[in-house]
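Input chain follows. Return C-alpha cells only.
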Amino acid sequence: MRALIGTFLIAAIVAAQPAAAETVRFPSATTPPTPLQQRLLKEHGQPIAAQPSVELTGEFYRPAGDGPFPAVVQLHGCGGRGLRETEDAAGAHIVALGYALLIVDSFGPRGVKERCGGNYWTDPVDRMADAYGALAWLAGQPFVDPERIALLGYSQGAMVALSAVSSGGEEALYGRHFRAAIAYYPACYAFSGTVSVPTLILIGDLDDWSLAADCQKMMAQRNGEGAPLRLVVYPGAYHGFNAVSLRDKPRSYFGHHIEYNEAADRAALAETIAALRQAFGR
C-alpha cells in the first residue's frame, strides 16, 4: 500500500503545473560573537567589528493559503543556478507537497560565474552562511513554520548542506537550525558522517566527480553518534542524474561525465518526498 501511495504521489507531482516564483532578497547570515569575543568585550571593552554580509537573491515558491507551511532551502551546484524551467519544476514539486521552496543564488550577487575547477570545495564563497541566511529569512515569514525548514543541496550545494548539519561544526554557532537535510551526489571524502538532524545522501555508483565509494567508506566508519544518516546508491547513475535538461544528451563538464537517469531521478524523488514528509510530519 505504501508503495502504491508513493506511486500516485509521484505521478501527481510530475503532472503538477509549473509554479510561479517571486524573487526575494535577504542577507547571508553572520555568526554571533564567540565566547572568547564576548569575554574580551566584557573585560576590555573592545568593540566587536560588524561582520560583513552579502545581500543574496533567491526564487521563492509557496503554496496558496496563509500557512504556516513547512519550507525547503535549495542550494545549487558549482555551476550556479540552473535553468529557469528546472527551477520552476522543482518549485512545482515542492509546492504540490504543501511546502514552500527558496532557491538560493550564492553566485549571482557576488558576480561569480562558477566555482567548479580545481578543488571546488575550498572556495572562499561562504555558502554555509548563505544557507543559514535563507533559513533566517524563511523563519521570519508569517506563512512559514519556523520549526519545519529542511535543507536540500546538489553537488557542491550538497556538500554545503552536509557541512551545515554536521554535529559540532559551524551549525552550533547559529541560533536556529534545519529540521533535516538531503544531499544529492556530494563528495563525502571530507565528511565525518555525524549529523545533528536526519540526513539523506543520494548518489550514483558511476559518478566520477563525487565518488559513491567515498560515501560508502564514510558510512562504514561512522561511530553511530548523532542523528540518523541514510545513503542510497543508484546503479548505472552518473553525476547530475536528476538533471532533466540532460535527457538524451549526456556531456562532459570540467572533465567529468554528467548524465540524466530517469530511473534514478524518480527513485531519488520518492526518497526525497519520504524524507521531507517524515521530517515535517505531513
